[in-house]
Write a structure and sequence with these properties.
The chain has 356 residues and is an alpha/beta fold. It has helices at 2-8, 13-22, 29-42, 44-55, 124-132, 165-175, 180-202, 207-234, 243-253, 255-258, 272-288, 294-312, 317-326, 328-333, 343-355; strands spanning 59-66, 101-109, 112-120, 143-146, 160-163. It folds into two domains: 44-162 and 271-343, no CATH class; 165-262, no CATH class. A five-stranded mixed beta sheet has the order 3-2-1-4-5, sandwiched between helices. Strand 2 (101-109) and strand 3 (112-120) form a beta hairpin. Helix 1 packs across helix 12, helix 7 (180-202) runs antiparallel to helix 8 (207-234) and helix 8 crosses helix 9 (243-253). The protein is globular.
Length: 356
């Protein structure tokens, strides 16, 4: 419950301490940290298994947001302190990099979704490379969905890159008051494309059938939009340095990854899945303001990964965490049997034995 309140709902330890005092059961913040830290150590095999499962995903979304880790605000020491078990070490990150980020990665594999969080000096693309390093050889490159920032791409691994239409749309929304007619055409075109994607989802189409559906209905719209975008510059209707001109330039520069859903089965339209996942880290940043150390950030990443993975798969996170704590030895021996979508089936034999 402490982990759910802190890392799932953004309740800082000191606020939970006050709540406990009000109900007559004191629970100091230091005690809360000791409890979640000890459990996190025992749950490392699960995080490693989630990372391995995510590495073999068909589609991976990634992005990052800023974060504060107090011990990383100071200049780096000549020798870094020992890393927590399972933590990602930033040895290869440039010592001149001062920013700290929380990267979110949401992978889809066999119909299940896996959320992973990484806090440190690495960018989202570098953390995605850490995940893909465990990808099973021979699977082929996965689809990667992200915005168009170059730091989101894992440079050492091949991916089928898709860019977020919502980010491109946002550039148009920002200038719509100054260019109402031109913006309306772009936004209505994207509205229709999203409408077709909604129809495909409601019908439960397979990735291949969804691709064919988009090629039939969305491709003519996007081709007409692409022609229209080019005409704005070719016919000197829009100044390239204007707000609308910059929005058009963004579309044209990233047109191929923006329209990947018309070429590759299973390619999503946007990165909203990971944007929603990052809201959990943003909530922590707003409520708790910071992590004290990289180890504290790693514990937060672990519990956020578990809680959000449960949410994505419709699993009761409280029941799941209780089950894990009751079967820690079994989890350590076979973490694949204790994933959010497998643990209930794994528990059935023990229930039958208990009833007998």
């Amino acid at each position: 419950m402490i982990a759910l309140l802190k890392y799932g709902s953004g309740v800082p330890f000191y606020r939970l301490e006050r709540l406990q005092a009000h109900v007559g059961v004191p629970l100091p913040a230091s005690t809360q940290w000791g409890i979640v830290s000890n459990v996190a150590t025992r749950l490392q095999p699960l995080r490693a298994e989630l990372l391995r499962q995510a590495a073999d995903g068909e589609v991976l979304h990634n992005d990052d947001t800023s974060m504060t880790v107090l011990s990383l605000l100071d200049p780096r020491p000549p020798e870094a302190p020992p890393a927590a078990a399972g933590a990602i070490v930033d040895d290869e990150v440039s010592p001149t990099r001062t920013g700290v980020f929380t990267s979110g990665i949401v992978a889809t594999r066999d119909g299940h979704r896996i959320a992973l969080y990484f806090t440190g000096r690495r960018h989202a693309g570098e953390n995605l490379a850490t995940v893909l390093a465990q990808r099973t050889p021979g699977l082929g490159p996965p689809i990667q969905m992200c915005d168009a920032l170059s730091r989101n791409v894992p440079k050492a691994f091949a991916v089928v890159l898709a860019n977020c239409l919502c980010h491109a749309r946002r550039h148009v929304v920002d200038v719509a008051p100054n260019f109402p007619e031109e913006s309306r055409y772009i936004l209505e075109t994207l509205r229709d494309v999203y409408g077709y994607d909604g129809h495909a989802r409601e019908r439960g189409l397979t990735p291949e059938a969804r691709l064919a559906f988009h090629q039939t209905h969305s491709r003519p719209l996007m081709e007409a939009l692409h022609t229209w975008l080019g005409a704005q510059f070719d016919e000197r209707r829009v100044e390239p340095n204007s707000g609308l001109g910059q929005a058009i330039t963004y579309f044209r520069k990233h047109w191929t990854p923006l329209t990947r859903f018309l070429e590759v089965a299973g390619a999503p339209l946007d990165s909203n899945l990971v944007e929603r996942a990052l809201k959990r880290a943003i909530l922590h940043r707003k409520a708790s303001l910071f992590y004290k150390t990289p180890n504290g950030a790693h514990v937060g990443d672990l519990f956020m990964s578990i809680v959000h993975t449960c949410e994505l798969n419709g699993v009761d996170a409280f029941h799941y965490l209780v089950a894990l704590q009751r079967h820690l030895d079994a989890l350590s021996a076979a973490p694949g049997a204790w994933l959010p979508w497998t643990y209930r089936e794994t528990m059935q034999p023990s229930r039958a034995l208990a009833s007998a």
